[in-house]
Amino acid sequence: MSKAVAALELQEQARVERSKLGLWIYLMTDLMLFASLFATYIVLRQNIADGPGGREIFDMPFVLVETLLLLTSSYVCGLAMLTLRAGNKRATLTLLLITGLLGAAFLGMELYEFAHLVHEGYDWTRSAFLSAFFTLVGTHGAHILVGLIWLTVVWIRLMRRGITHQNKHHLAQFSLFWHFLDIVWIFVFTVVYLMGVA
């Protein structure tokens, strides 16, 4: 009986390790995707085709609030991981809910920015600059949406099943993904917005 239990534990540990490796491989491919989008944006950012550039269309106070929302969500996500390790299910659920709400507010602001630009006549077909802008920032936003769906699934699992080894693993993977998106946004904020208004 103990050999069977040990074999099951070894199988579970191997599955977890494969899952960790899979996530790291995914993040590396995502890193290459974003690197190519950043390179494209940098090459095309001056190609405004007699249209507006970043200085004319970026609302920096708005983008700063957006950035603070995402940075705060990443911090709160880190706190959720600490409460998870401490075994506090209720605090973990609360902090994950706050993480999700902040992420959703960030995504809502991004969608509002896109809608506002399109309404003003500055859509992705206006210039190469705007095409690269919408593609890079929109790809990040799509990742945020995936992260929010992932968070919802993990939150429901944690609420129903409690703090299990499997839930800890799933939350650790989500946390890594969420922090990755935070780092990508710091580069978006710097390369697209700050350099765009300089």
What does this structure look like?
With 198 residues, the chain is mainly α.
Briefly summarize what is shown.
86% of the residues lie in helices and 0% in strands. By secondary structure, the protein is mostly helical.
Give the number of DSSP strands: 0
Portion of residues in beta strands equals under 5%
Largest sheet: none
Return the structural class: mainly alpha
Percent helix range: over 70%
Shape: elongated
Chain-averaged pLDDT: 93
Instruction: Report Rg.
Output: 20 Å
Put simply, the count of helices is 6
- Topology pattern, helix = H, strand = E: HHHHHH
Distance between the termini: 68 Å
Low-pLDDT windows of residues:
none
Write the layout of secondary structure elements.
Elements lengths: L1 H43 L9 H4 L2 H26 L3 H31 L8 H34 L3 H33 L1
Provide key terms for this protein.
198 residues; mainly alpha
